[in-house]
Specification:
It is built from twelve helices and ten strands. The chain is an alpha/beta fold.
């Protein structure tokens, strides 16, 4: 296959740009080789990061979506081979013609990332709900090697500039960001929307739980109050923000697994009671 020419499974930068603004945008996946990705200072907004050498593994666990567009540097072998591997797994996949460089040459927008590393994020210190839930979402769905910084509120903007980090879950007067509260929605919702992850019903269920916990609307889901209790309790147990994040990651994994079962109608009920029938059964 001549990878220098467009194919029926390719999409031009201009067509992709329109699709990303459409009603049902494709999932974007950055499959540049690891060295090229690390050395680059930019990426496409809303793109998930995946290792192109491990496509056989991550193809099976991509977030649910209608279609996927992968991109490499120039739209040659890496992008084409990953597209083909995805299609072999039954994923409706295409690759970006000319890669990210053609996208940039056409003046289409990119977002900054630290050269020499994966994505970097900064927010206020002493996290509770959103500032833990969002890093979980990023590491599990977007960039497994993402770095997170917790700093005093009045330092978020300066640290973001110095460290080439993206601020999140802060007010406009603290630092400019698209990853923050919007009306009744919390920062977790903003990440789900930005990375086009709304097609995952389990993640949508988890977003409701997080939203209820983070915005003090504990009537939103029965689980929101429990998440508040666990989050506040862990913040008392762990005085170090990064240790708290590490401790809470498995909790969100478990909550997401419960959501997956729940949306499939397989959520297990705890049915034990202290009534006579149960006591007899326990005898």
């Amino acid at each position: 296959m001549d990878t220098t020419k467009p194919s029926s499974f390719s999409v031009s930068p201009s067509v992709l740009a329109r699709a990303l603004d459409g009603v049902s945008p494709p999932l974007l996946v950055d499959v540049r080789k690891n060295q090229a990705f690390a050395g680059s200072a930019y990426t496409l907004h809303g793109a998930l990061r995946r290792d192109p050498l491990e496509v056989a593994q991550w193809a099976r666990v991509l977030p649910p979506c209608a279609s996927v567009v992968v991109y490499c540097i120039h739209g040659h072998e890496v992008g084409v081979s990953n597209m083909q591997a995805l299609r072999e797994q039954g994923v409706e996949a295409m690759y970006l013609e000319g890669g990210i460089e053609a996208w940039r040459e056409q003046g289409l927008p990119v977002v900054a990332k630290p050269a020499g590393s994966h994505t970097r994020w900064v927010t206020r210190a002493r996290p509770r709900v959103d500032r833990i839930a969002c890093p979980w979402l990023i590491r599990r769905f977007v960039d497994a090697q993402a770095q997170f910084l917790y700093v005093p509120t009045d330092q978020v903007a300066s640290i973001a500039l110095r460290e080439q980090a993206t601020a999140y879950d802060v007010a406009d007067h603290v630092a400019p960001t698209r990853f923050t509260h919007d009306g009744e929605l919390c920062s977790f919702d903003a990440f789900v929307q930005a990375y086009r992850l709304g097609g995952d019903p389990a993640l949508a269920r988890l977003a409701q739980i997080v939203r209820g916990a983070d915005t003090d609307r504990l009537d939103l889901t029965p689980q929101s109050g429990g998440l508040v209790a666990l989050s506040l309790g862990m913040s008392r147990v762990e005085s170090d923000d990064h240790r708290m994040l590490d401790a809470m990651m498995p909790l969100y994994d478990a909550l997401y697994a419960w959501c997956q079962n729940a949306v499939r109608g397989q959520d297990e009920k705890h049915t034990w009671s202290a009534g006579p029938a149960s006591q007899k059964a326990q005898a």
